[in-house]
């Protein structure tokens, strides 16, 4: 059952990732002057092969709201979104103050609706809590692009850009299987983020499923709070609980700074560590080659930037012209690749500083 | 470990109670009995740890780990003991700790530390902590703002300032002289545990053996009487909150040594752990009675609890339930044990 879910995830994820990268690629090369467009009727043009998506169009106002940038990944989300909007002269981005208070975020969206923005990119602090106000926006004719944390109702968003939490666990598990699959007695430990969040449970489930594929399981599981301090203290205890470890998966590279320090304090190096999210400092550890960090699994911090891009396309009524099917897809799920010493050079330039 | 605690208690307690509300009278047994409840709780916890974890729990390494993890919270709890003894509360210590780690680890400070050694970073952390504490104190004492509100404001503001300074990024400590001074062991014991021990001794001495300590208890017991007795209550309160900020600064230095990174998320929600430890340790929230030894045992109880749970690989949600149960259980146990001695 779970194996099937996992395959289905991959089936969505791979083409979506291909499409997204193709879109980015065309964005980079399309410097030819834009053809004149028949006003407001671009869809009928059947411009499937060409890519004039980056050509300046009518000015659009995009409202952007995300939780407080209280850690590296979330900080990178907002700055990448702002940078993306800078790329377009026809986009005016209105960034609401980041907040972890769902009531404040709801009122921000109500403000966007009252202002009559052309599109809203929303990374909700809590998807379920923001669903109603997103539906309100959609009913007011404002397309909502949902990023990272899903609404509880499909009518609440025109398009959803998702990371792949389950897939992160799968990628981490498969990497560990590749390294330890021939040792059925290998000790695998897992350092979760905030255990009560659905995203954490998805990551752990994917991890357990992938490990089960090669006959491994999670022997020790602890949870931290996405902070350096909590990462350090749970790891110090974890290392004492398990005197011999073969592999550790740490869900989050922000807390990974503390995890690494605890490992150093304890003077342990008999295992290898796989990170999560993909911060620049973990990638530098991988690059150095003499660290316990052998790999990290990416959870893209650029997904809100993709949200901005898609919001602009939707507002311009353009399509993702690289796909055979016209129009922007309803769901874009990003892939969770494994970064190792072999490919770290490709990923490091775009990684976020934690 | 627990045996040492037990044996060191009676002596410590005798003097603690002597400085208590009924100073110099028959309360000698009262405090001792109160702490017996705590020691019993800690012993029970250790017994559970030993039965379930065996050697992994009862090893010297594990004792070191528990003490190290208790140290950061513990140092702040010593400052908090003074605040709560005056009948106040300091909700800002977690944020202030985060602020001090960020300030001490910023690039500018570290570059200066290249020239002047680790002293710049430590001085910076202590100064920032003390300043934040004194600001709390001035607002509470001279502005007549309730401590809960004033320190709540500092909780929010200090966290915001920390985010601003850190630019919401983790500031890695890259300063060899700092790391050499504070990381690693001294005589087989982690240096931050030594710092904790020093702060405990200093805190105990300050509360139980000095005029400052007697005034703290007097202000908490009855501020009006204290004022009539010639104590400058406002100024004293300001000092007490300054002390709490200062211990947050010390804890900041220790956390930097421990994690090697300053981050605006450092100390998030730590104020709750600190307050819980102090209250479980027998310091009255209403003021007028404070116990440094009780606070230390309170901190150790929580650190041991976390350790026992992780050693046994138990879900962290269950751990939170146990924390809640410990808070209620320890306070109930204390009341039960101390009641007969009070009525006598």
UniProtKB/TrEMBL annotation, chain A:
Entry GO CC: cell envelope
Record keywords, A-Z: Signal
Location of the region described as Disordered in the Swiss-Prot/TrEMBL record: 32-61
InterPro entries linked: Peripla_BP_I, SBP_2_dom
Family matches, as SUPFAM superfamilies: Periplasmic binding protein-like I
Residue ranges occupied by any Periplasmic binding protein domain in the UniProt entry: 62-315
Signal keyword on record: yes
Annotated signal peptide: 1-27
Pfam families: Peripla_BP_4
Membrane-spanning ranges: none
Domain of life: Bacteria
Subcellular location: Cell envelope
Acidic residues composition bias: residue spans: 33-44
GO molecular function, one term: carbohydrate binding
Family from the record: Belongs to the bacterial solute-binding protein 2 family.
Listed name of the protein: Monosaccharide ABC transporter substrate-binding protein (CUT2 family)
From TrEMBL, chain B:
GO CC annotation terms, alphabetical: plasma membrane
Biased composition (Polar residues): 1-16
Keyword annotations: Cell membrane, Membrane, Transmembrane, Transmembrane helix
InterPro entries assigned to the protein according to its UniProt record, in alphabetical order: ABC_transp_permease
Region feature Disordered, mapped onto this chain: 1-22
Record-annotated membrane-spanning stretches: 32-51, 63-85, 91-109, 116-139, 145-166, 186-207, 238-256, 292-311
Membrane topology: Multi-pass membrane protein
Keyword Chaperone: no
Pfam family, one: BPD_transp_2
Location(s), subcellular: Cell membrane
Main location: membrane
Domain of life according to the entry: Bacteria
Coiled-coil regions listed in the entry: none
One function term, GO molecular function aspect: transmembrane transporter activity
Listed PANTHER family: ABC TRANSPORTER PERMEASE PROTEIN YPHD-RELATED-RELATED, RIBOSE IMPORT PERMEASE PROTEIN RBSC
Name of the protein in question: Monosaccharide ABC transporter membrane protein (CUT2 family)
């Amino acid at each position: 059952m779970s194996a099937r879910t996992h395959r289905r995830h991959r089936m969505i994820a791979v083409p979506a990732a291909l499409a997204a990268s193709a879109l980015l690629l065309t964005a980079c090369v399309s410097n030819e002057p834009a053809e004149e467009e028949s006003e407001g009727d671009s869809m009928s043009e059947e411009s499937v092969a060409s890519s004039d998506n980056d050509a300046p169009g009518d000015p659009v106002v995009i409202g952007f709201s995300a939780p407080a940038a209280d850690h590296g990944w979330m900080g990178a989300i907002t700055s990448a979104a702002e940078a993306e909007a800078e790329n377009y002269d026809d986009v005016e981005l209105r960034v609401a103050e980041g907040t972890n208070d769902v009531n404040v975020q709801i009122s921000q969206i109500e403000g966007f609706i009252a202002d009559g923005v052309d599109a809203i990119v929303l990374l909700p602090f809590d998807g379920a809590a923001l669903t109603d106000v997103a539906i309100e926006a959609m009913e007011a004719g404002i397309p909502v692009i949902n990023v990272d944390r899903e609404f509880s109702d499909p009518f609440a968003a025109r398009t959803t850009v998702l990371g792949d939490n389950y897939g992160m666990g799968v990628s981490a598990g498969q990497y560990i299987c590749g390294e330890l699959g021939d040792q059925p007695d290998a000790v695998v430990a897992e350092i979760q983020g905030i255990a009560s969040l659905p995203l954490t449970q998805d990551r752990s489930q994917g991890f357990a499923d992938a490990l089960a594929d090669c006959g491994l399981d999670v022997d020790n599981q602890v949870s931290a709070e996405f902070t350096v301090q909590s990462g350090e203290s749970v790891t110090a205890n974890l290392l004492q609980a398990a005197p011999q470890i073969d592999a550790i998966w740490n869900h989050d590279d922000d807390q990974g700074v503390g995890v690494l320090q605890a490992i150093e304090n304890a003077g342990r190096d008999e295992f290898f560590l796989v990170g999560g999210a993909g911060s620049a400092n973990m990638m530098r550890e991988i690059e150095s080659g003499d660290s316990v960090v052998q790999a990290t699994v990416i959870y893209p911090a650029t997904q809100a930037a993709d949200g901005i891009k898609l919001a602009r396309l939707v507002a311009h009524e353009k399509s993702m012209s690289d796909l055979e099917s016209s129009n922007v897809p309803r769901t874009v799920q990003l892939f969770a690749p494994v970064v190792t010493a072999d490919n770290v050079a490709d990923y490091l330039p775009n990684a976020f500083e934690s | 470990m627990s045996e040492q605690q037990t044996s060191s208690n009676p002596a410590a307690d005798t003097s603690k109670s002597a400085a208590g509300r009924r100073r110099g009278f028959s309360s000698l047994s009262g405090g001792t009995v109160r702490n017996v409840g705590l020691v019993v709780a800690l012993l029970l916890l250790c017994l559970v740890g030993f039965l379930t974890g065996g050697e992994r729990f009862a090893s010297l390494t594990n004792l070191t780990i528990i003490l190290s993890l208790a140290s950061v919270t513990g140092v702040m709890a010593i400052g908090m003991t003074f605040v709560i003894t005056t009948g106040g509360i300091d909700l800002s210590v977690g944020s202030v700790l985060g602020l001090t780690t960020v300030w001490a680890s910023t690039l500018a400070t570290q570059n200066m530390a290249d020239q002047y050694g680790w002293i710049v970073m430590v001085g910076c952390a202590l100064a920032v902590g003390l300043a934040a504490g004194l600001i709390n104190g001035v607002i509470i004492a001279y502005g007549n703002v309730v401590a809960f509100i004033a320190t709540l404001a500092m909780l929010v503001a200090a966290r915001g300032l920390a985010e601003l300074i850190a630019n919401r990024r983790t500031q890695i400590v890259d300063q060899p002289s700092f790391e050499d001074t504070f990381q690693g062991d001294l005589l087989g014991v982690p240096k931050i545990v030594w710092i904790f021990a020093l702060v405990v001794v200093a805190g105990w001495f300050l509360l139980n053996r000095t005029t400052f300590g007697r005034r703290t208890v007097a202000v908490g017991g009855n501020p009006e009487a204290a004022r009539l007795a010639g104590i400058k209550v406002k100024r004293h309160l300001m000092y007490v909150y300054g002390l709490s900020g200062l211990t947050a600064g010390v804890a900041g230095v220790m956390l930097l040594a421990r994690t090697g990174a300053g981050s605006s998320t450092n100390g998030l929600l730590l104020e709750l752990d600190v307050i819980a430890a102090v209250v479980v340790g027998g310091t009255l929230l209403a003021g007028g009675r404070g116990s440094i030894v009780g606070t230390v045992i309170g901190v150790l109880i929580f650190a041991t609890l976390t350790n026992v749970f992780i050693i046994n690989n138990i879900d962290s949600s269950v751990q939170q339930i146990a924390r809640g149960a410990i808070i209620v259980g320890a306070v109930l146990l204390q009341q039960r044990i101390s009641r007969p001695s009070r009525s006598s």
